[in-house]
Structure formats: C-alpha cells, structure tokens
Amino acid sequence: MLKQKKVMVICGGVSTERDVSLRSGEAVYGALKDAGFENIMLFDLTQDNMADILKEKPDIAFLALHGEGGEDGCIQGMLELANIPYTGPGVAASAVCMNKTLTKQILQMHGIPTAKFVVKSKAECSDIPVLAEELIDILGLPMVLKSPCQGSSIGVVIVKNREEMPAAVEEVFKYGNQLLAEEFLNGTEITLPILGNEELTILPDIEITSEREFYDYKAKYTSGLCHHILPARISEENRAKVQQIGRKAYKALDCCGTSRIDFIIDEKKGPMVIEVNTLPGMTQMSLFPDAARYAGISFGQLVTRIAELGVEAHSKQ
User: Fold this and answer.
1) CB atoms within 10 A of CB 112
2) Is the pTM of this model over 0.85?
3) Per-residue pLDDT band at 154 (split at 50, 70, 90)
4) Phi, psi at residue 170, to the nearest 5°?
5) Considering only CA atoms, which of 255, 257, 204 is closest in space to residue 229?
6) Which of 40, 34, 33, 39 is nearest to 10 (CA)?
7) Could you give the residue numbers annotated as active site?
C-alpha cells in the first residue's frame, strides 16, 4: 500500500525559485502526513547533498521543486537512472516545457494556438536600436520579452515603447543567454490544471487577476496582490476551447501526473497558450490546490493522487 511506502518530498534546489519550492515542499509534506502516509521525509536539495537521495533510496520521490535543476529534467534523469519513481512528467517533457521556446515550437507543430514569437541569442542583441526596430516590425508594440528558462514570471518584461527596450533586454539577459520576444496578448489570463497519465482529469479553470501590471513574481507570492476566480469568467464556448486545447497540449508535450496550462483569452484571437508548468506550485497561494479544492478534492487527496500517478508512470517493471 502506497501510504506505507517510503516517500521523500524533495524541495529547495538551486534555482531562483528556491524559496517558493521550500514552501511547496512543506505544504506537501504536511498534507501527506495528514493523509496518513507513515514514512515520509522532507528533503532540502542543494548542490552538495544529491547523493543522499540515492542513499535513502525512497520508494517514490515527490517533487516539489521549481525552476532550473528541478523542473527541467535534471533531477528526473537522476531518479530514472536510480530506478526511483517520481511525481510529474518525465525527463523529455520536463526539459521541453521548462524551455518556453521549445514549448512554443512544439505547440506550433501541433497547430495549437500561441502568440507570435521571435528568439534571439545574446550575441544577436548587441545593437539595441536595430534589435528594437526588427522586433517592432515583426511583433508590434507593446510586446513581451522573456528569459525562456525561468519560472514564476522571473525575467519577464512588458515593453511599451522603443525607449524601454535597452533596460528590458538587460533584465532578460540577467537570467540566461537567450531572449524570447512575443506579441502582446490583450485579454483574460486563465490557467487550466490537469491531472492524470493516460486518463485525464480536467480541473476547473481559474481566472487570474493582479493588482500589479501583470501576474509577476511579487503578485504570485504576496497575499492580496492577486486573485483567483473560480471558475473563470469566460464564455462556455471559450471554456470548451480551453479544455480541448489543454488536452491536446498535454498530450503533444507528453505530460503526465500533473501539469498546468496557462492561457490568455485574447480579445481578438481567443484562447492562446502562454506556457506549460510541469511541477505547479503547491503553496497556500498556489493555483493547482485551489482548483482541486473547488472540485471537491482536498489537498490530502490531491497529493495522494499525484503520488499514485507518479508510481504508475515511472515505476520500471
């Protein structure tokens, strides 16, 4: 029985989202304990203690990691080699979904709607005025500049005019050597949490509003700066489209266990996929637990189901 197995909740890590991951890990640990799991441990991952995971050899690793090193296939690969089942998508899906550029390229291949985009390396961005004219010609203003491999809206800047471009480019390159520029979508931001491996459970969509310019890191993790509206205030036609597109994206990217598909319902273009989160946050302010709660699934039931799906997806026979 799973509740008698050795479960390691892995959190922390070395990314810019370490603090959020620690909060997710503590929340998951408490929920598993309350759900009756008998042998669980909370493991704060650092660069120096990775070998301790192999020494402990848990029956399953519950991944509460976010960002680089935890959400990008690295830890998943190590666990695969050690034959330790884990929660969330596998190595390839994790790596692709962590990289917003690769995600968008695959979405395009499958005919899944996403904003028009341009990708530039740091070497291609030395002449900012030339870069600005090129991007404005393709995408128009305003536009969104992103660091493709960050989460929690870190390294995201909305550029409204040419004069803002130098500072925006500099901000993005603090987090990596690639810049993703996207056309600005004007509409309602929503997210669609999905649970499952082969058979999918579509949880209620959530509309996200922010007291700041957009749903950035501070808005996500500061009480009172964002609001989750369940279900989202969208038409039933758009809700049906979101669910159809969400299922298609989940399958196209080979997700399993859990993933959260983020959308903007653009006023002119309808539902457009922004990105896919393979290890959604599990803090008290997180979206996935909110959607589950609205659907009548307690936090304890949610983490139990996620653990079950992990064993099902990643146990080697």
Assistant:
1) 20
2) yes
3) confident
4) -60, -40
5) 204
6) 40
7) 17, 152, 221, 260, 262, 275, 277, 281
**Type of residue at 315:** S
Residue 164 three-state SS: helix
Cα(60)–Cα(85) distance, integer angstroms: 5
Residue 16's CB is within 10 A of a number of other CB atoms, namely: 19
* pLDDT of the residue at 193: 98
In sequence order, what are the residues at sequence separation of 6 or more whose Cβ sits closer than 8 angstroms to the Cβ of residue 251? none
CA-based radius of gyration for the chain: 19
Q: With CA atoms as reference, report the closest residue to 106 among 268, 276, 231, 242.
A: 276
CB 286 within 8 A of CB 223: no
Residue identified by tokens 């990708």 is 119
**Cα 290 to Cα 229: distance, rounded to the nearest angstrom:** 10
Please give the single-letter amino acid code of residue 76. Q
Decide: 161 and 129 in contact? Cβ < 8 Å. no
Pairing of strands 226-229, 206-210: antiparallel
Dist CA 305 CA 95 (whole Å):
23
pLDDT value at position 111?
A: 97
What average pLDDT does this structure show over 160-172? 90
The 10s digit of each residue's pLDDT in 100-126 is 999 999 999 999 999 999 999 999 988
How far apart, in whole angstroms, are the C-alpha atoms of residue 61 and residue 279? 13
> Are 288 and 280 contacting, i.e. CB atoms less than 8 angstroms apart?
yes
